[in-house]
Amino acid sequence: MLSGSNGSSPVHSLVSIGGKKFSLDKSQLGLKSIIGVPHKNDTAIDILGRVLGAVPHDIGMDDPWFEVNAYCLYDTDRWKDLNPKFVLQVYRDVIATGDKKFAQTVWPSVYVAMAYMDQFDKDGDGMIENDGFPDQTYDTWSVSGVSAYSGGLWVAALQAASALAHEVGDKGSEDYFWYKFLKAKDVYQKLWNGSYFNYDNSGSRTSSSIQYARACGLFPIVDEDKARSVLEKVYNYNVLKVKGGKRGAVNGMLPDGRIWWIWHFILQVASLNQCGLKKDLAWNTDDQYRSLTYMRPLAIWAMQWALSRPKVPKQELKPEMEADSLRIHHAGFSKVARLLKLPEDQRSKSLLQIMFDYTCKRMLT
């Protein structure tokens, strides 16, 4: 959905659209002037200048695959977790299936998905920042700056992109994404407060609620002792403190023991019956049954993966990237990132978003 692949390099595949080569140095306005036709409600221009690089939230409802994103509360093109999760899912599937042809086919889309995220690294430290509204899948939680959830996914995705580049034989991209991984990992460690990783670095009361993201098959993004501390904290707060441990795990918990989730449905871990995989059962804190059509029940496969301990390629530490090579690959990556950057007017909040954020904050006080 992000870009096609003809077996050529990611940058070449990106600009070879319909036999016409577009300069990566051109902005959206430059692209419009090149084509030289009326552009009001121009679907092709909208796709090239706005959607390319942004992983959709969903495949759509009215005309699936052609008109994506039935979700409409927020502009998901600005969400910080969809692209990293796409990259991690691709790498997971490559490792699980061993399908090198699939890896070659999707590699250009992975490269573009990573380049799209570059616009959200506002200070150039290698780490993406959230924009102060619910710009991730937890769409009732505002997040500001570096966050444990989106930031952790980004760190893991950088390593996955490096590993996938290795699978397809792109040595330059392998080293470049590894360099970015190490850089972002150092920033992520600053969220550590001694027991777990703060929700974000905003310094607000909710910044110290408990979350954690971890990817499988790659180097841990945090030290093992920190990972154990986080998991113990999550279990003690988000499981044991909810209905005597019989209605966890909840999505979020404040340090004082209050559940941080403004709606009244809290999912328990999906349980499957022995024979059937027929139903995914869940109960909320009011003893009401819920069975969602979300992808959350797929978490059961993460449990199967962890318990079966499949063989995965052993990752190796990489030497520091040479300065000349780093400069060349950074220049190429930055050109793609500039082409994919959202217009400034799309980065501003709508009135609906402002009102929604205000309501959420009032309910937490």
UniProtKB/TrEMBL annotation:
One of its GO terms (molecular function) is beta-glucosidase activity. GO terms for biological process: carbohydrate metabolic process. It comes from the Eukaryota. Residues 50-259 form the Glycosyl-hydrolase family 116 catalytic region domain. InterPro entries: 6-hairpin_glycosidase_sf (IPR008928), 6hp_glycosidase-like_sf (IPR012341), GH116_catalytic (IPR006775), Non-lysos_glucosylceramidase (IPR052566). Pfam families: DUF608 (PF04685). PANTHER family: BILE ACID BETA-GLUCOSIDASE-RELATED, NON-LYSOSOMAL GLUCOSYLCERAMIDASE. This is Glycosyl-hydrolase family 116 catalytic region domain-containing protein.
